[in-house]
Structures are given as structure tokens and as C-alpha cells.
Design goal:
The chain is of the alpha+beta class. It is built from 4 helices and 7 strands. Helices cover about 40% and strands about 25% of the residues. It starts with 12 loop residues before the first strand and ends with a helix.
Length: about 160
């Protein structure tokens, strides 16, 4: 017997970006290697002129750049029977299924967008003030994998809103 078209696979769904992770890892390694090479390429008599606070500042800047790249690369979307939980960079969100109006990923969009119904129960109106969240784990650059992820989230939304 075939499952219904909106049947949901048991268990939670976890979606992570693919290309963004590869790019972030490569860029983090390249930035770290370039920093080390740049430091070692300086003549010894120039390196000794740097104070401890200047070295800490340079290392802190490198750490911030690496943190930004890694935090974006580890964006994630989790869907289960309670709703969506997702992390975009350092910020996490939890949205119950009854607040999910629509999940969209159009051609040319950098990532999927989650449109939310108003929390006060008003009907959804499509305007510039509509409450929305970015789903950065669903990158358009991931191609078919992102489209499949969006379709699975839409299927789960239909299923959980109908039950």
C-alpha cells in the first residue's frame, strides 16, 4: 500500500547547507594559512616591533572572521511534530506549525524564507510588514537538495496543520 501524498516520514528532519559549509571551511583554512604566511613573511626585526596588545588584536580579528564563517556554515533547520527549530548564524528560532504560513525558495533567492502568520491570530497579509524568517540552511546554491528540503518542509507543514 502506497503512503498518502502528504504522509510524513517518522522522526525529525534535519537540513544543513552543503556548499556553504565547503566554502566556509576552505575560506577559514585559506585565511588562517594566509595570516600565518603573512606573519612569517615579515622580517624578524619588524615582528619584534609588535606589542602584545597588537598581537592579541590581530588574533582577535582573525578569530571573529573565523567565527562568522563557521557560524553561518553551521546553520540548520530541524522539523518535527512541534514545529520548526532553526539556527541562522548565532541566533536560534523556534516556530510552531500553526504559525508557519508558507515556505518559499524562488529562483535567485540566496536562501529559503519562512512567512509567519501573526502571533495575535490576525489573518496573514502579504505585504512588506509580514513577519518572516530566513532559513539559511536551505541555500539556493545547493540546487536540487535545497528544493527537496523545501518540498519536504511544505509536506510536513500540510500534514501537521491538518492533524
Amino acid at each position: 500500500m502506497r503512503p498518502a501524498p502528504d504522509a510524513v516520514a517518522p522522526g525529525p528532519l534535519v537540513i544543513r547547507p552543503r556548499r556553504l559549509r565547503v566554502v566556509a571551511i576552505v575560506m577559514a583554512v585559506a585565511l588562517t594559512a594566509a595570516t600565518c604566511y603573512g606573519w612569517l613573511a615579515l622580517p624578524r626585526d619588524v615582528r619584534v616591533l609588535f606589542t602584545t596588545s597588537q598581537l592579541i588584536t590581530l588574533l582577535g580579528l582573525l578569530a571573529v572572521l573565523l567565527l562568522v564563517m563557521v557560524s553561518l556554515a553551521f546553520s540548520v533547520v530541524r522539523a518535527d511534530d512541534t514545529g520548526l527549530r532553526f539556527r541562522n548564524g548565532l541566533r536560534s528560532h523556534a516556530v510552531p506549525w500553526d504559525r508557519v504560513h508558507k515556505i518559499i525558495l524562488r529562483r535567485g533567492d540566496p536562501w529559503a524564507m519562512l512567512l509567519l502568520t501573526p502571533a495575535d491570530g490576525r489573518p496573514f497579509t502579504a505585504d512588506l510588514d509580514a513577519d518572516k524568517r530566513q532559513l539559511m540552511a536551505l541555500q539556493y546554491g545547493d540546487g536540487a537538495a535545497a528544493q527537496i528540503g523545501v518540498e519536504e518542509l511544505r509536506r510536513r507543514q500540510r500534514y501537521y496543520r491538518s492533524t
